[in-house]
Amino acid sequence: MQNxxxxxxxxxxxxxxxxxxxxxxxxxxxxxRNEDGTGVFVGIxxxxxxIGYKKEIQGDGSEKKIDLGGELYYCGxxxxxxVRHQQEEGRWGYEETTYLLLTGELPNQxxxxxxTKELAERRHLPKxxxxxxxxxxxxxxxxxxxxTIVSAMHLFDDNPDSTDIKDLARQCIDxxxxxxxxxxxxYQASNAHAKGxxxxxxxxxxxxxxENFLYMLKGKKPDxxxxxxxxxxLVLHAEHGGGNNSTFTVRTVSSxxxxxxxxxxxxxxxxxxxxxxxxxxAVEGMIENIKANVKDxxxxxxxxxxxxxILDGKANDKTGKIYGIGHAVYTRSDPRAEILxxxxxxxxxxxxxxxxxxxxxxxxxxxxxIVEAKKGKVxxxxxxxxxxxxYRSMGIPKELFTPIFAMSRVAGWSAxxxxxxxxxxxxxxxxxxxxxxxxxxxxxxxxx
Length: 448
What we know:
Blueprint lengths: L3 H13 L3 H6 L22 E10 L5 E12 L2 E2 H10 L5 H10 L5 H13 L5 H8 L7 H11 L12 H31 L13 H10 L5 H14 L7 H11 L4 H12 L7 H15 L6 H12 L23 H16 L3 H22 L7 H11 L7 H23 L25
């Protein structure tokens, strides 16, 4: 007898594919994107602005997309200016960035000190939450564990379903503070089953957000260069406008007046998808494949030939994708990648990885040329191209790359959640039916 799962699979493939002519004729915006690949405007936000192109009106009245150098703004402030000042002044940036995203304004020193202290004091988890982490069945699904524990946080909130702004602010600050603790504890618990249970390290209230996570992960205070670079990584990933998949998901769930824990969990779920949060892991896998198949890392021709094979679907995972090259909005440059490239070179030199970094830089130079020549698309290295290399150079395991992304982006998610609740409009887009008629005549079960 045919397996019911096979039946469902075959019928789903039969009925759920979309006729391309229907999409074109009805002008349906699949993926909420216009025909030229730009995003459809579905909301308004003051939090993040992602710019990669502008539109100009042509003589015939049509619009033309003009590729620009990428720009990213947090609450109106250019990300390059934020990072530059934070680095030049030799101070931690993530706390200031989080305050900016939540409030829309840069803090003065007094308010920054108060906010930093508040975050530090909220890092500790309830004992019952620790028990949930330690006593869970053994597995190494770090994003699944993060989703589970963040969901469970509502159990320790006396008013979890409140949408009052005071409660929203409290809940969001709690989650931002506790994400590093949860990520570190989940990772420690995944290894404890093989080595025997061990005490979970308590967060350090006297360390910065970045320092504390690295301490919790490794048990010692990190050196300043490593901690400063990790802090910058958190800043670069903290926000990326309302249209990225995980933030849009958080806003959609928030628009239904779901509680903060469910809304933030929806962002975690989205980020766990390989098309969103897992890109830097894919880059690392691709680079390992290139290193194994390209003999001379200095030979542009040999590297280019292999990149062409990857783009043609003949090498690496045969998906036809050069991971870390190209972006949904940015075309000629990703400002985050430009910032990160310079810092990645520093830590590569520090850790004896300069030769490998040179290979990354060559690929970042050659791949866009190949993509444009073969696909006719303007592309550049994005932030994910370098982020995995940087994390690995710090000794951070690959399975934590995406949880760290979430640990950073929870600041942006929280800011957008509060904004969505204040705006107060349930999201409810329309879907066009792919069926040829409005009704089907019901056939009794005995006659089917």
